[in-house]
Amino acid sequence: MNPGPATGRGVNVSALALTGAGALLVAVLAVLVLSPDQGPPASDPAAAARVIAERFTPHELSEADSYRSWARAIGIASLLVQFGTLAFLAFWRGRPMRRLLERLGRHPLRGALLAGAGISLLLSLAGLPIDLAAWKLGRDFGLVSQALGPRLLDWLLATLIAIIPAAIGALIAMAMWRRLKGKFWIFASILVAAWAVIVTWLWPVVVSPLFNDFERLPDGPERSEVIRLADRAGVEVGEVYEVDASRRSSTLNAYVNGIGSSKRVVIYDNSIRELDSAEFSALVAHELGHVKANDLVRGLAFALLVIPLGVLFVQFASGSALRRNHDDFNGPALIPVLALMVTLTAFVLQVPGNALSRNVEAKADRFALSLTGEPEGLVDLQVGLAKSNLSDVDPPAVWQFLFGTHPSTIDRIAIAEGSRSEG
Ligand SMILES: [Zn+2]
Predict the structure, then answer these.
(1) 284 alpha carbon – ligand 1 mean position (Å)
(2) In this structure, are residues 240 and 267 in contact, taking their beta carbons and an 8 Å threshold?
């Protein structure tokens, strides 16, 4: 109610800017500290350009370019819808919204629970057309095998699953905001950090099996190769699973996730069927590189380093927005404002996070080269992956900077070619 000078949890603009800049600086420093030392081989971009020209037809390149242009447009639309919806809820104070907030404010905690669930549901509904556009695009280009019905069922399941943590998160945030006042960020940071650990640890065991069937990879040449490479790399992999990814898409992939006893290598069934043995070895060796370098812990460490200042920024920005709106400082208007600021902050901090991810991925490629000693396997794998996923082999630099979690195809081939020229 009081737009006057900053008091209590009100924050002036310079404190807000300083915290934001500080959070970004910590994230950049964390990337520098946590990025693995790349070591040899140096990359050979000229050789990579030759490989691309030899192995891809102009038609393949233009098909991928067309698919990726559409996919990027859909990605941008998705961001706009998400941020637009959240900004609308955070700042629009037309009569229906004021009435709704007043109603929810009668029981602030229950109000926050409902607001959290409502926002989650609304975001999911607003995103449905975009989800369908992405599905249609994938179908048109032969990347998605899933029919509309199952896809909608997946969307429904994902929507319902998302509501629960959103509602509980909103309830907890509200309770902490009301009780802890200026110390909100300290306890919120601890909770967010705990959540990051839990997700890393429990997601593969609890949530992933809801969407796919995971089966122990049966004895055979593939399993033996995984065990042989893991032995040579000197890493413990836990169990090796095959996942029925082909139910949804033709994507070729594998990953390692979980920590401690939930650690596992998961291989897409497509990869087992479609890769030759050198490609399969390169894929598995790359994943073992992640295990060897403790990359899950690196990712987690990045999160733990950036969370405190990130959450402090969210607290300051949310306080400023509530003040600007003349909202009840302790009412449910907090929830949409908080949702917007959290999403915005996470989006910005993800950019340095992606830089760390690209460094980690490049290192895993270099590890795979040293483990298998077969650059051809990695080159074939990258060419095959790019073709089957219709990847942009050399995406726009800005896009790669903002969203690229892996080095581009051409950069990955350049690493493999570099090891060839080093003999
Ligand atoms: Zn990787």
Answers:
(1) 10
(2) yes
